[in-house]
Amino acid sequence: MKILVTGGAGFIGSHLCDLLLAKGHEVLCVDNLATGNKKNIVHIENDNFSFIRHNVTKPLYLEEKIDWIFHLASPASPIDYLELPIPTLKVGALGTHNMLGLAKEKNARFLLASTSEVYGDPLVNPQSEEYWGNVNPIGPRGVYDEAKRFAEAITMAYHRYHGVETRIVRIFNTYGPRMRLNDGRVVPNFIGQALNGEDLTVYGDGSQTRSFCYVSDEIEGIYRLMMSDYSDPMNIGNPEEHTVLEFAHFILKLTGKSSKIIFRELPEDDPKQRRPDITKARKILNWEPKVSLEEGIRNTIRYFEGVLDTQM
Ligand SMILES: NC(=O)c1ccc[n+]([C@@H]2O[C@H](COP(=O)([O-])OP(=O)(O)OC[C@H]3O[C@@H](n4cnc5c(N)ncnc54)[C@H](O)[C@@H]3O)[C@@H](O)[C@H]2O)c1
């Protein structure tokens, strides 16, 4: 099949390109490199792979047939979307509209990468797909959360009104190689600080919880969702929940470092808890995460050690 991946030069998108190529598909990666990097795809030496630098908030005209579109383009880390608030809103709204238009024209199946952020600071734990969320539309995170909520709404509208075959994955915190050390997310933050011999910064008292899914598990879930005939939103993430403080200690143990843990003020609208209910993914996709936190974090530490070595 010929598959378009928007955001394919980013963290999750580049792993998805690898998976699709390994399954024998032809992949067209479209990315404007706003938060991604060509380094993430430079290892790909495959005649079935091509790259177009393009901002998907502008229409994309393609001659060739396209069978599937995975729409992952969007700044994703809080640091990125706070620096790029309007591009984040535009890619969620205009970018998703353009890619749905392309899917309609090409009669292609379309998958939207949505997020657990649509649940905001959730009042129920774990979060099932039926929960409508607790989002502050005008808070700092609103640019990302509302862009993704709009993206879900327009995806369902194209499905219901135009009959486009659509899928919506609500991705929960995902980690692994090719994240950026300075992207502000908790996994690269802690690992980078530990490897550099710096204090680990915990926001608030560290009692807020997160659940972390290793990237190979995440993309397997995304691929299975695309293969399924399920058009309602589906959570894909790891339900194993840890407090941020526990996680900081875990990183110190696995890196063998003895940095101090220091506490800083909690950012506005930081969610207190995040944990996916993956009953649907288990039942419908026969999917659940396989990689243990220890194995995933060890792989990620190894990757960041390599990155830091080349920076020296
Ligand atoms: N990583 C996570 O934990 C997580 C959690 C929930 C949802 N997601 C979603 O998964 C997707 C990928 O996230 P990621 O962590 O790989 O982030 P990332 O920043 O590494 O990748 C996003 C990619 O989209 C590209 N992009 C941004 N705006 C674009 C535009 N207008 N046109 C073309 N390309 C554009 C960036 O250059 C980048 O390569 C995003 O849609 C994100 O919202 C990720």
Provide a quick synopsis of the model.
39% of the residues lie in helices and 18% in strands.
Q: Can you walk me through this structure?
A:
The chain is an alpha/beta fold and 312 residues long. 39% of the residues lie in helices and 18% in strands. It contains nine helices and 13 strands. The strands form four sheets. It has a seven-stranded parallel beta sheet, sandwiched between helices. It starts with a strand and ends with a helix. The site of nicotinamide-adenine-dinucleotide has 29 residues, from helix 1, helix 3 and strand 5.
Low-confidence segments, ≥5 residues, pLDDT <50? none
The CATH topology of the largest domain comes to: Rossmann fold
* Global mean pLDDT: 96
Terminal-residue CA separation: 42 Å
Write the CATH architecture name of the largest domain. Answer: 3-Layer(aba) Sandwich
Order of SSEs? EHEEEHHEHEEHEEEHEEHEHH
Domain unit count: 2
Radius of gyration: 19 Å
Order of the strands making up the biggest sheet: 3-2-1-4-5-6-11
Structural class: alpha/beta
The proportion of residues in beta strands is 15-25%
